[in-house]
Amino acid sequence: MSQTLPSTPRADGFFMPAEFSPHRQTWMLWPQRPDTWRLGAKPAQKAFSAVACAIAQFEPVTVGVNHNQYANARAMLPPQVRVVELSSNDSWMRDCGPTFVINAQGQTRGVDWMFNAWGGLYNGLYFPWDLDEMIAQKVLEIEQVDRYRAPLVLEGGSIHVDGEGTCLTTAECLLSPGRNPHLSQQDIENYLKEYLNIEKVLWIPRGVYNDETSGHVDNLACFLRPGEIALTWTEDKSDPQYERSAEALEYLLSQTDAKGRKLTVHTIHQPGPLFLTAEEAEGIDAVAGALPRRAGERLAGSYINFYFCNGGVIVPTFDDPHDAAALTTLQRLLPERRVVGIPAREILLGGGNIHCITQQQP
Amino acid sequence: MSQTLPSTPRADGFFMPAEFSPHRQTWMLWPQRPDTWRLGAKPAQKAFSAVACAIAQFEPVTVGVNHNQYANARAMLPPQVRVVELSSNDSWMRDCGPTFVINAQGQTRGVDWMFNAWGGLYNGLYFPWDLDEMIAQKVLEIEQVDRYRAPLVLEGGSIHVDGEGTCLTTAECLLSPGRNPHLSQQDIENYLKEYLNIEKVLWIPRGVYNDETSGHVDNLACFLRPGEIALTWTEDKSDPQYERSAEALEYLLSQTDAKGRKLTVHTIHQPGPLFLTAEEAEGIDAVAGALPRRAGERLAGSYINFYFCNGGVIVPTFDDPHDAAALTTLQRLLPERRVVGIPAREILLGGGNIHCITQQQP
Question: For B4-361, CATH number?
């Protein structure tokens, strides 16, 4: 049975574990819409498949798909990846999927946040988003996991937790007028405390430059373990990313986590800078109500948008000179895991990366 | 993992257990199409919900639903019933769902028959049937059960097994030109032996009068236990059903089962006869390519179209003078189970009944 519970995770002793804690499986969605994904989403489908295959080496993977792509997804994905129908508007399981919480007895429940396509009628990326809004509930229903319905617009990519009481987020996103304009920063912090069962929120000012999610933290910075953070970086002071990364670094070094620890920050140099090519822009459908994609636009590329799975780390690569250093650094920082690079420019073209298209179920 | 296996259940030591054996759960689909179900399917949805609730007293139930009815199905069904997306053309899980097989070690696999909407372009009931055709695969994928793809058009409602080597079917249906006209009766029997792992097929000549499925056995006769069969019946020699039931009785009494046992046949008097009313016919959409429903048409009502679940028997009732006798007789014949009657005229109006809308997963 999957029931919608009237209480909150905090009240019931459930909390969101860190992504680097053990997973039961990974959830993904299948890319399809031709106004997000160029060339009828065929290159993106290949890239998503490569991500699913990489994760499946470490843990079970379920991919949700619209019915009219079911046969194609089933044919493109290997048999060890489970494919289920899950109607969606687009394919960002991190953002519309449930945030799973656990308790000390190892029971699992799910938080179903409100979803409005990264900004609703204010600055959302497409309309409608009715199917995405139902994804979390449907996932919990398939798994027969009880559900909390959080009265807050929030995407999973806008938060990270260390599993020990600390939440990492950006003010740019969580305080955006496209999310919860009726709530104060304190109100939002209180909701995060209730639904993630954390003690302290670290508010990095801004996310990655030109990130269409209003600056999701998961493209900028993440926990490697409690007390240690990885941060996307550039040495080029003329790059508009420079001041964003620098201000994040300064902020993080000035803070302590929920346990009172000072934070160690590891910088990972960004790829590129990367830009949308004319050929890539040409392959994308222009659709009323969806974000236009123009040749020459800066892409919000970052190696931080990687995904932890059981014993592994799946890292986006861009056929870029910085790829090797990013992979080497992450492998050095995470010696207990196997770091796997996956070519991910096609995912980036859709506006996110590997972390954005995955969701762990502990 | 759910793989499609190149072998057959018989080759691998798997067989179809009888419906009265223990179930892991029951699968159903959600009724929706307004050319099958009157008044926008609302009365049918109520009736299906009542069936799901009745079964859920005995075992878990999963209901598959098209995405545009997900919220409604979720709201109408109680929380203990699992709801998952499964796109379908109509709602007959018995006929388009998988036939589950087990082995001596209790492992489960599924047979995915070819489905052509009860007759394909010859005398099928609607077009297209592309989504129904994929239901079995999708169910097995959700459950991560390996799959056999049987090269035979067959609906689950056209066969019954006793779990001890005997299959019960009708020649009217399995030899219909709308199913497998290129195959001989012997060819079909060989496929049944391979995919159900049975030893003997009992070929009742015809099913229930005016049954739009070309005479599915599950509306006419079923095993109550090995060696014992229930058969729909009428005492009225002027009813066209009389000669069909009489010829079935004569045939069954002339046969032995796979174990060499003579068969005991219990007759259950049919309801009615029942006819489609003008008011009911009015509520059904006329759609090109779908079977028209005309006021005054004889309905293929039968109490035999009931469903075994763990410890229970869910029997259709029709607000008919014969209801009480049917329930009493079944309870007497099945004293080890609780017989539950569910008003099912709304299901019958769509062309089948409780057995047709359910599928057991052992």
Answer: 3.75.10.10
